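Sample entry follows:

:::
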Amino acid sequence: MLRLIANLIWFVCGGVLMGLGWWLAGLVAAITLVGIPWARACFVIGSFAFWPFGQEAVGRAELTGRHDLGTGPLGYAGNLIWFVLAGWWLAIGHLTSALACFVTIIGIPFGIQHLKLAMIALAPIGMEVVPRNRLFS
């Protein structure tokens, strides 16, 4: 119940803007056709940005215990291209939102979540969003 309340407050007080920012970046990437791998990551993380509480973003290699195309050298190169073209913009948006949240005591958990999303914005390829209870089971 607490998770639902936190997600609703998050969504109304700024989560919707950052989620839409992620989805806009995904649409732009999808239009280019070359950017389809980035588009998929944008839509997954954009959904996470809408409702972050109760979920966690972890590296796919850490989650599965093996490397794949997105967690190896091509994923690293993809994240580097992403950082230059769009990642730092989304990270700045999350950092700005985090600073606004840190103004109030109630906003501190939301600011921390924005900082986590800012780190993901820098290198989203190879990340997987999973329910928190899946990590600890």
